[in-house]
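Illustration 12: alanine--glyoxylate transaminase.
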Amino acid sequence: PFDFKPAPYYGPSKEQVLKDRLAHVHPSVLLYYEKPIMIVQGKMQYLFDEKGKRYLDGIAGIVTVSVGHSHPRVIEAAKKQLEKLAHTTTIYLHPNITEYCKLLASKLPKKLSHIYLVNSGTEANELATQMSRLHTGNYDMVALRNCYHGMGAAMGLTAHSTWKQPVPQGFGIKHALNPDLYQGAFREDDPNAVEKYLKHLEHLILTGTAGQVAGYIAEPIQGVGGAVVMPKGYLKNAYKIIRSHGGVCISDEVQTGFGRTGESYWGFQKDDPDLVPDIVTMAKGIGNGQPMGAVATTKEIAESMGGAIHFNTFGGNPVSCAIGQAVLEAIEEDGLQQNCRITGSYLIKELERLQKKHSIIGQVRGKGLMVGVELVKDRKTREPASAETKKVAELMKDNGVLIAKGGLYGNVIRIKPPMCFNKLDVDFLVDVLDYSLSKL
Ligand code: PMP
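Figure caption equivalent — predicted structure in token form:
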């Protein structure tokens, strides 16, 4: 049952907005759809265009809207703070900063007690890189191929050609083989695949660095890379290898954090609740779409920043902190982690049912509400069905469901809706996917 009526839209027409955009907005990012949509309102898991057409948001903005579009608790917190004070700067004291950092730290393993507030995932990963280098005195960073950790200086960490620019990026960064058991160098039919990926990681350190590294960064489930789940045992042993070569371990939780994966609050805990990285980076869902990010680390690493000041103008903004706090409270109050577990496993089950019907579905994977559907031309060769994926995204949009494409070849349908998604939403999304695949 859904009785929400979007407010009437009186703004400029879609055609006018498109014209102005082409004239004034730097076209570095293309519009996603051939026939672009203009979204003007949101309510929990739904979005509305200027004509009031409703879309089910299967990608949560861009994995940013964790607790739901225009969640009442988030609106209330932002309004209250805006009425009092929108911004000063972190050089003064403000209770929201300390309250928020205390609350966020309480969600993390005890040793990750020190929080830095920033503005985006890119900035969080740049800071994590700096911290690793300052703390260890080493220079080389290791990341995984097919990962995404941001643009700017963090583009050096990112290893996905779509997002690279042909200019020098982030020196001292090495990329290890991605432990992708579906498309990677070693696959699920090889019982020693995980061991081989770990051997490669160690070999990369021994041959490509001075033998000692600053840090290692990985997403427990690769987001932009197409919901590639780090295989069981991989992260734990990768951390061991990195630490034995003097490095610190960074978990990029920009997409996997805050209960989205269902069974654990953080992605790094997905197979082993005792696994603790040295640095955790966060953004996207942390602010339900508000531009904010954070880095959590240990007292020792924070202290080794020493005289190096880390300052940014907007990090720790009192409105952002109030929103961040409301998000954490909504996750608890609305039971969203549990919902991700329950609704997520229903989603995977339903997608697997669809897989039996459509041979183009090569693999369904993921955890909680972080799911990927990889489309292939042939299940044996696993040749990516990239053009078909583009078409499916377009058809789904026309039929009222928004998803994202991902993976190295753009052949993975990414489903990462707001964490309040329910079974009826899954049924609708899966029906529309079924219909769209049958139209190919
Ligand atoms: N890390 C991951 C895992 C991401 O998915 C992203 C954004 N797609 C980033 C970092 C960079 O975040 P931002 O776009 O906020 O800079």
